[in-house]
Structures are given as C-alpha cells and as structure tokens.
Design a protein that fits this description.
The complex is a heterodimer of chains A (about 140) and B (about 220).
Chain A lengths: L1 E5 L3 H12 L3 E6 L15 E4 L5 H6 L7 E4 L4 H13 L5 E5 L3 H9 L3 E3 L1 H18 L2
Parallel strand pairs in A: 1-2, 1-4, 2-3, 4-5, 5-6
Chain B lengths: L1 E5 L3 H12 L3 E6 L5 H10 L3 E3 L5 H6 L7 E4 L4 H15 L3 E6 L5 H6 L4 E4 H12 L5 E6 L6 E7 L20 E7 L5 E2 L11 E7 L3 H9 L2
Parallel strand pairs in B: 1-2, 1-4, 2-3, 4-5, 5-6
Antiparallel strand pairs in B: 7-8, 8-11, 9-10, 9-11
The chains are: A alpha/beta (about 140), B alpha/beta (about 220).
Chain lengths: ~140, ~220
C-alpha cells in the first residue's frame, strides 16, 4: 500500500515506522522539519515539508496515487479538513482522521469520515484499567 | 436576522459593525481571550462578544446557534472556518453558512462540503490586480552595458493591434526606440524591413527605459 501520513508527531512517526516494517510505501508530511527527527535512522520513506490542507502539497506527497491517507497532526480542524480533501477531491480509498474532541469526532463520523478520538479511547482504557484493578482486589 | 460571526479580527470586527448598523442581531465569537481584540470589540460595539472556540459545539451551544439564521466564519485559518461552518450546519441546522477562505484553491472543497458561500480576499485582490495590469506587457530582456538607460525588450503583439499588416520598419516609434527583430508564431526570426506584422508575433526592440511605455502602446494599442 502507498500511504501518506500528515503529521510527524509521536503517533505519526510510530505509525510510519510500523507501516514501513510491514513493507508499505510511506510518505510523511509535516510543517516542521525538526519533526522528522522522531523517525528512526533506518526510515527510508519520503519526508516532505508542507501543510496537508494545501492541495498542491498533497499532490506533491503523491496523494493521487495513494491507497490510504492518515491525518494525525495536533490540530483537529486541520486533520478533518485534510481528510475531507483527500476523500472528496482526491478520492483516496482509505482516509482516517484523528480527532481529539469527542463531540467533533462523533459529528464527523456521522458525516462519513473514518475517525479516531484518542481522548475517548484513552479514557475508556483508563476506566477499564481502574475497574479491572478494583475487581481484582 | 440573528447572525453569528466566528473570528474577531479586523474582518470580523468591521463585518459585525456593518451588520449591527443594518439592524441585525450579531454575536462575535473570538477564541483568543488574551488578545486585546475582544475587549476592543466590546468597547466599540457593546456586549456582542463571546469568548470561546467557534468550532466547539459547546461554544456554539452557548451562542444560541440553534436559532441563528446565518453563521459567517472569518478567522485567518481556512480549516477553522470550514469546521465552524460544518458544525453549525450538521449539529445546529443553521440554514446559511458563509466562510472566508485564504487559499483560493480551497473554494472547491468548501463548496463540495456544502458551505453556501465562500469569500476569498486573495482571489478578489488577484482579480483586481490582473485587471490593472496591462495584459500585453513589455518584458525587459537585457540591460545594455555601458549605454546608460538602454534596454533590449520584448513585446507580444495582441490580436487587434493597429500595427498588424504594416511593415515593421514603417511603424511609428517613440524617440530612442528601434525594432531589431521579429519572431513569428512558428519561431522564425525576421528583420523589420520588408516584414509585415502578424498577431502573436514577438517584437524584440532596443529602447530607452523612459520610452518603454510609449513603445509598448505603439505596438499593442488598437
């Protein structure tokens, strides 16, 4: 698969590394060149500086031939905008967007985006851990 | 009408002011509480500012977005304007949403996602500039060294120019300007003597810098 990842934070870098280990072709996009230092030295995918809500930047990242697009910058709005551009302008088959705000996440899920809210998932896992811990007492 | 304006920058401020003057009920949502903007708007326009993130459902709820007739998002970030309009439409059923866009290329995605009206200042300014710029420009090619004020320039002959059909060496030029070569549409060079000018020919001329505008007009005007 050819995958474009927007945002090379901890999650983006980790995902890029994992995808590459799975022999996928990865392009990582970030506005800050320093962000790429999170990638391991062994990373051979493409690193591109630019903002993923700019269609020209997405084209340069190879969005037209991409099988999947992942938006995982720190900004919810940037993520949903880029994801919607990937889906509706470039018809990328698989588009996933990270959205911290659970309310916005729910809304964009209803509007047909594939969304993941780390806030919701994180809280649920913590809750399970606490309840599981008490059950073991 | 009840109109919500997201973004209390310069655009938001003057927009709110105009809308209030026209008798509408207006609420400005501004995120940055540390900026002097919201205080300024409140001082100038009265109690019409809500501090908060206009992309967050909770803020829009507090703003009474459910009864708004229109939401206009005019922050400096296209992604924030898009999300504010989408939340207003999808969650609060606001009948009309408008967005300011900064990157003209974003017009299509906004339209596809159902934003009713987009306003791009960048496009508007570009259009204005294009109208003000002469379409058939004179392009300086080379500054002739040692000859103060002489340049070699290029002008493309527009369809409708009054010199079309005339012999290039007979064209009346300003003092200090001279046609040296004409390149036709197929890329063939011609000397001015005995060559009649066609549309889309490129004229290479030597001209004094202060005569260039006159030269351009002599070659391109109808």
């Amino acid at each position: 698969m050819r995958v474009v990842i927007m945002g090379c934070g901890r999650v983006g870098a980790q995902l890029a590394t994992m995808l590459e280990q799975g022999r996928h072709e990865v392009t990582v996009l970030d506005v800050r060149p320093s962000a790429f230092s999170r990638l391991p030295a062994s990373f051979h995918g493409r690193k591109l500086i630019g903002n993923g809500i700019d269609q020209d930047v997405l084209r340069r990242a190879g969005i037209e031939a991409a099988d999947a697009f992942v938006a995982c910058t720190q900004g919810d709005n940037r993520n949903v905008m880029a994801a919607q551009i990937a889906k509706h302008i470039f018809n990328v088959p698989c588009v996933v967007s990270r959205i911290y705000d659970p309310i916005r996440e729910e809304m964009y899920h209803m509007l047909g985006l594939r969304t993941i809210s780390p806030t919701k998932i994180g809280a649920e896992l913590l809750l399970q851990a606490i309840e599981g811990g008490r059950a073991g007492e | 009408m009840y109109i919500i304006v997201v973004g209390g920058g310069k655009v938001g401020f003057y927009l709110a002011k105009e809308l209030l003057d026209e008798g509408h009920e207006v609420l400005v949502i501004e995120k940055d509480e540390h900026s002097p903007r919201s205080t300024f708007i409140a001082e100038e326009l009265g109690d019409v500012v809500l501090k908060g993130d206009g992309c967050e459902a909770a803020t829009l709820e507090a703003a009474g977005t459910g009864r708004a007739d229109m939401l206009i998002a005019v922050t400096g970030d296209d992604e924030d304007n898009l999300v504010a309009c989408q939340v207003a439409r999808a969650r609060f059923r606001v009948p009309k949403t408008m967005a300011r866009i900064n990157n003209p290329k974003n017009e299509l995605i906004f339209r596809k996602l159902g934003i009713d009206v987009t306003v791009s200042a960048t496009s508007a300014i570009l259009n204005q500039i294009e109208q003000e710029l002469p379409t058939h420009r004179l392009v300086p090619l080379l500054h002739l060294r040692g000859r103060a004020g002489l340049e070699m320039v290029e002008v493309r002959i527009p369809a409708g120019s009054r010199i079309i059909g005339k012999e290039a060496s007979d064209v009346l030029l300003p003092q200090g300007a001279m046609i040296t070569l004409i390149v036709d549409a197929d890329g063939n060079p011609h000397l001015p003597a005995g060559y009649s000018v066609h549309a889309e020919d490129v004229v290479i001329a030597v001209s004094r810098v202060d005569a260039e505008e006159q030269l351009r007009r002599a070659l391109t005007e109808r």
